[in-house]
Amino acid sequence: MTKYGFPEGFLWGGATAANQLEGAYNEGGKGLSIFDMVTFVPKEERGNDIEMDVKSKAELETLLAGKGGDNFPKRRGIDFYHRYKEDIALFAEMGFKTFRMSISWPRIFPNGDDLVPNEEGLAFYDNVFDELAKYGIEPLVTLSHYEIPLNLVQKYNGWLDRRLVDFFVHYAETVFNRYKDKVKYWLTFNEINISTLSPYIGSGILIDEVENKEQAIYQALHHQFVGSARAVKACHEIISGAQIGCMLARMEVYPETCNPDDVLAALDEDQKNLFFTDVQVRGYYPSFMLSYFEENDIQIDMLPGDEELLLQHTVDYLSFSYYMSMVASGSPEKLKEKGNFFSGVKNPYLESSDWGWQIDPKGLRITLKKMYDRYQVPLFIVENGLGAYDKVEEDGSINDDYRISYMRAHIEQMKEAIKEGVDLIGYTSWGCIDLISAGTSEMSKRYGFIYVDQDDYGNGTLERTKKKSFDWYKKVIATNGQEL
Asked: How far apart are CA 384 and CA 407, in angstroms?
């Protein structure tokens, strides 16, 4: 039967991450995470580029010694740690069916390799889940969202060391057992492919400390794939009826022209992006990636049983972030241009955000159709939104019509994809409350329906204010996407 709207029980909500939200980085027994070491760099000094890598032991030691600046925005977040009841009440007022959040690994195991978990950290998430349950909001929990304990970087150079698989699985089993009656939906690694762009944030690798950078990145990723499969296995064994998925930073790529060189370049980029979900959904390394490893002399060290583990413990659903599309060219000269966030070629048919991200609602529909065709598993959009400068008017209102327009256009395309047969189970808008930007550590890059009074330097009252989009999204949820 053709579906003409969002299915009954569709999971509308919002998405966040502990490191961008919680604050209280040195409270409740929490250890340092990788993002606690990322300083703020003003936009005028870095342009639109992301600024989040720590690359060497020397750089890390400088930061730990307090000589690398004093503005670490992800340490303060927006104080969700102390204000979660107030924030969850606002999410409930919007009608959220689900709230995507992450557990901070170092809040549970401060050093990452501890044997005994931190009870105060476990109790904090008990309280958060209980508060969500009070309003009937289903938690969607990411196990690892750029929150690798810093000690694992210092001692092991992150996921490059196979021992992290056991540390991660111990952490996953601990939270599965603790919250098995409170959390049904789980994700393993947030945007697992980000390691190819930021080895420090994605895998905890100090990349200047390794000889063959690409070899190190893909070896670390293999360890994460194994960790993910073992976490899927544990989740299914410990929590009856649980659903556990993977998560990809989706990069839809178009060829610049119908020149076969451009088409082939776009296909190559698409395959490299979908490699990660191929492993986690299909359960094996695709042939095109094995060919790439051979051509680039990359040797993946696998243990006996790894391939069987990947094949037997695939995810239940595929989740992804979608913010923009890219354009590929077969011309090396074209790729030197700076057209979009990751890509070198600008799409002349699309407008751009304040941060140079090209806005492409129809690209979301294309992505949904392509991914469902490829995998035939339920899909879940767990990040999508518009980072923009918001202005507080004299009367205190924030009229973010641009955000409403962005989201309306994307939700319309989601509806079309469902009509065309895509199995889409939910949508959590990124940064449903203003929080610290992952890539730039800015507060001024705002995504939320709720304004938080704080600037890039931590000044402000932290007061929460509803934006115009708050009531708009409330109506969207109440009508199950019929009134946009």
From this structure: 8
Please report the domains of the chain, with CATH numbers, ordered by start residue. Answer: 11-478 (3.20.20.80)
Helix (H, G, I), strand (E, B) or coil at 55: coil
Which of the residues 51, 147, 269, 383 is marked catalytic?
Answer: 383
pLDDT (tens digit, 9 = 90+) per residue, 376-435?
999 999 999 999 999 999 999 999 999 999 999 999 999 999 999 999 999 999 999 999
383 part of the active site: yes
The distance of Cα 261 from the centroid of its chain, to the nearest Å, equals: 32
Query: Could you write out the DSSP letters of every residue in 100-111?
Result: EEE--HHHHSTT
- Which residues neighbour 90 within 8 Å (Cβ) at sequence distance 6 or greater? 433, 450, 464, 466, 470
- What DSSP letter does each residue of 295-358 carry, written as one string? HTT------TTHHHHHHHS--SEEEEE---EEEE-S-TTGGGS--SSS-SS--TTSEE-TTSPE
- d(CA 79, CA 405) in angstroms, rounded, equals 29
Indicate the Cα dihedral angle 316, 385, 197, 156, nearest 10°. -60
Average pLDDT over residues 306-318: 98
User: What is the number of H-type helices and E-type strands within the chain?
Assistant: 17, 14
Alpha-carbon span 476 to 484, nearest angstrom: 6
Among 182, 35, 192, 7, which Cα is nearest to 99's? 182
Residue 403: which of 341, 446, 360 has the closest Cα? 446
Q: Can you tell me which residue has the tokens 């490191």?
A: 19
Burial 57-66 (b: 16+ CB within 10 A, else e): eebbeebeee
Look-up of token digits 């969700």: 80
What's the pLDDT score for residue 4?
75
In angstroms, rounded to a whole number, what is the distance separating the alpha carbons of residues 229 and 90? 35
Measured distance CA(17)–CA(430) in Å, rounded: 10
Helix (H, G, I), strand (E, B) or coil at 243: strand
Q: Quick one: what percent of the chain has pLDDT higher than 70?
A: 96
The SS3 of residue 393 is coil
Inter-residue contact 458 to 81 (CB < 8 Å): no
Take residue 85 and report the two structure tokens written for it: 């009841």
